[in-house]
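Kindly review this record before class:
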Amino acid sequence: MIPNFIIQLLNPKTDDRYFEYKYNEYLTIQKEGFAAQYTFPFAQKLCIGNGLDVGCNRKEWSLLGSVPVDISFENGYHAMNLPSNINRDDRNWDYIFSSHCLEHLNDWTGVLDYWWDNIQEDGLIYLYLPDYSQEYWRRWNNRKHVNNLRPNELRDYFNHKGCQKVFVSQVDLYNSFTVVAFK
């Protein structure tokens, strides 16, 4: 009779709920795209009023109630060319939500400066970003990523901007973190 552990070694069970990348294991949901869905419950509590979802990739992936903005939409709007809020005299937005977008942009500080100027005085910027802990999302493994942003780096940036309050989460099971900055 062949011992059980030998049978398992010869016929390893595959589990499609997780995968291995460079000797680390990650949940398969990270390969599916649409990262924003994992932060929507929090974002929908904070992103109230008229706002944008920048970099949503698909309109159906945008935060409920937001105006979707993505370079792929062919309407001329993108991270550095936002539409005006026609509901306000100053044309500014109540919030800007963005998930897994900044890591693709060469000048993330320039982008955040621009977004900061396009939210109203009591508005907020809500970011959901990939964490360095996920090997594949590091820029030398994923050439679409030009930045590896860190939670403390973003906290420091927003504090430098004079934010009222900045909240930074821990890393979640999507190997991502959230930053909420109140102007």
Residues 36 and 99 are 5 Å apart (CA to CA). The mean pLDDT is 91. The first strand starts at residue 18 and ends at 21.
